[in-house]
Fold this sequence. Notes:
The structure is a single chain. The chain is built from 7 helices and 7 strands. By secondary structure, the chain is an alpha/beta fold. It folds into 2 domains: 3-143 and 186-223, 3-Layer(aba) Sandwich (Rossmann fold); 151-184, no CATH class. It has a 7-stranded mixed β-sheet with strand order 3-2-1-4-5-7-6, with helices on both faces. Strand 1, helix 3 and strand 2 form a beta-alpha-beta unit. It is globular.
Amino acid sequence: xxxxxxxxxxxxxxxxxxxxxxxxxxxxxxxLSGVPRPVRILDVGGTExxxxxxxxxxxxxxxxxxxxxxxxxxxxPAFRSLAGDARNMAGLADRSFDVVFSNSVLEHVGTFDDQxxxxxxxxxxxxxxFIQTPNRYFPLEPHFxxxxxxxxxxxxxxxxxxxxxLGWVAREPDPAAARRRIxxxxxxxxxxxxxxxxxAALRRERFCGLTKSFIACxxxxxxx
Length: 224
C-alpha cells in the first residue's frame, strides 16, 4: 500500500482517516447523548461492523436499522437490516426515526438530482440527522487517492483507471466500465450540501487548514 493509502486507510488506527472518523463519531455520540431513549437510528449505507469498530454496537436504548441496496443479516440484537434505495424510502414513514446517520455515502448515490432525492428522503424520515460527505475541493480525491483526480477531464480519468488501480478502486481495463465506476462518485461542495440540507449546521473536518469533509448536522427536532 502506498503512503497515501496508509494515511487514508480508516482501518489503521494511526491513519488520518481513522482519526477523523473517531473524532466525527465522538461528535455524533455527544449529540446522541441528548436524545431521549429509546432511540431509533436509520444508518443509510452503514454496516454493523462500523458501529462495532466505533465501540457503539451495544448502546443502551439504541436500535439501528441499516439501509443498503442489499440486506445483510445482523448479528447483534440492536441491529436490523433492510434492502432499499436512499433515493426512495417509500416504505419508511415520515419522521419515523429519531436520527438519520450517514457516513461517506451521499457521494455514491448518483447525479446531483439523485443526491437531492436522497437528502429529501433523509430529512423526511428523520427528526434529526448527521450526514457526512467528503469535500469536492479537498486536493486528494478520497476514493482514487489521486491528487485533483475529480477535476481531470473524464477521458484522462478513464485512461488512468484502465491502466492501473487507483486508491481503493481496482484497475478496470474496460473503458466503458471504468467510466461508469468514475461517474458513480460525485463529490459535493459545501454550497451544494447547504442546498440539500437547508436547516442544518454545516461542520467542517479540517486537515492542514483545508476542509477535508463536511457534516450536515441537525439535532433541533423541536423546530421541525
